UniProtKB/TrEMBL annotation:
<protein>
    <recommendedName>
        <fullName>Gamma-glutamylcyclotransferase family protein</fullName>
    </recommendedName>
</protein>
<dbReference type="InterPro" id="IPR013024">
    <property type="entry name" value="GGCT-like"/>
</dbReference>
<comment type="similarity">
    <text>Belongs to the gamma-glutamylcyclotransferase family.</text>
</comment>
<dbReference type="InterPro" id="IPR009288">
    <property type="entry name" value="AIG2-like_dom"/>
</dbReference>
<feature type="domain" description="Gamma-glutamylcyclotransferase AIG2-like">
    <location>
        <begin position="4"/>
        <end position="122"/>
    </location>
</feature>
<dbReference type="InterPro" id="IPR036568">
    <property type="entry name" value="GGCT-like_sf"/>
</dbReference>
<dbReference type="InterPro" id="IPR039126">
    <property type="entry name" value="GGACT"/>
</dbReference>
<dbReference type="Pfam" id="PF06094">
    <property type="entry name" value="GGACT"/>
</dbReference>
Amino acid sequence: MEWVFVYGTLKRGKRNHGLVAGSVRKCLPGFVEGFHLYHLPPGHGRPYAYPGMVPGEGQVWGEALLLPPSLLLLLDELEDEGEEYRRVRVRVKTEEGFLEAWAYVYLGPLEGALFLPGGVWEG
């Protein structure tokens, strides 16, 4: 099993959660440090709004999902891994302590993006 930190459309109740919902073995709210969060509006090749996490001095809040490793390929495709996002290891602080997880860091331009100083994306 693999932990994946999600902070946008893959969170519970959001647009893409259905892609993983039936496979989630555990879900822990938490945050990562050392990142900024941006709201990326529709347009510029984006069919709908979603967030982008980039390195910076801050925190990003989301959920750590425990998923079968086979879902990483599906998530890589969804996130356009290597082009729009890069899958990296992060340290997530949860109510059960720290855990290591995969997360997708945004690689694209931030022109027109809205900085979210609280590190929470509501969509």
